[in-house]
């Protein structure tokens, strides 16, 4: 195959632009806005933005509302929401620490069971394919033997027909000879 490709490469003489019948290549077809911005940042050799910790800050009320109770209430609500969020994260980590290993073990057991079933099914399919191939081979072998038998039978019949035709030609020649002799005697 490699030799054929090399031979084809030697004989192939491309035109100036043998791809001109194709539409132009769109290199940006799969870019998202985030990817485009990141490519522009890298091209401009700008450093990557640092991780924003703003969401974890607890800002006080704006300077003009330091005495406003409602503004302080919003700040307290924000701090309570962030505290609850952190508590939920800690609870999730504790649950993962306590049950995560067992959950992974159970998941791995399910995957192992799926693998075992898939391998057994694969073996069964291979066995069925092997049996089917054996059945086909045996049918084809029998058909081949039958064809060989029929061919030899045909050859012998054709030979017999040829022999009969030859005998008929000889008999016809002898009959014609006898008729000529009979006519000459009369």
From TrEMBL:
Predominant cellular place of this UniProt entry's protein: nucleus
Coiled coil, from the record: 108-181
Keyword Oxidoreductase carried by entry: no
GO BP annotations listed: mRNA processing; RNA splicing
One Gene Ontology cellular component annotation held by this UniProt entry: precatalytic spliceosome
Keywords attached to this entry: Coiled coil, mRNA processing, mRNA splicing, Nucleus, Spliceosome
Intracellular or extracellular location(s): Nucleus
Taxonomic superkingdom: Eukaryota
The keyword Cell cycle is assigned to this record: no
InterPro entries on file: SPF27
Family (UniProt): Belongs to the SPF27 family.
Name under which the protein is recorded: Pre-mRNA-splicing factor SPF27
Organism: Cherax quadricarinatus (Australian red claw crayfish)
């Amino acid at each position: 195959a490699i030799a054929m490709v090399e031979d084809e490469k030697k004989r192939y003489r491309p035109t100036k632009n043998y791809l001109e019948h194709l539409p132009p290549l769109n290199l940006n077809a799969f870019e998202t806005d985030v990817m485009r911005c990141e490519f522009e940042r890298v091209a401009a050799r700008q450093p990557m933005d640092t991780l924003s910790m703003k969401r974890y800050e607890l800002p006080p009320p704006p300077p003009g509302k330091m005495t406003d109770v409602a503004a302080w209430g919003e700040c307290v609500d924000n701090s309570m929401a962030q505290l609850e969020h952190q508590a939920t994260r800690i609870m999730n980590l504790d649950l993962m620490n306590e049950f995560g290993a067992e959950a992974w073990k159970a998941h791995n057991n399910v995957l192992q069971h799926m693998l075992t079933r898939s391998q057994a099914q694969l073996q069964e399919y291979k066995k069925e394919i092997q049996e089917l191939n054996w059945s086909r081979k045996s049918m084809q072998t029998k058909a081949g033997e039958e064809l060989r038998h029929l061919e030899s039978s045909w050859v012998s019949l054709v030979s017999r027909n040829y022999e009969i035709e030859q005998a008929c030609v000889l008999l016809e020649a002898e009959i014609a000879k006898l008729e000529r002799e009979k006519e000459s005697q009369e």
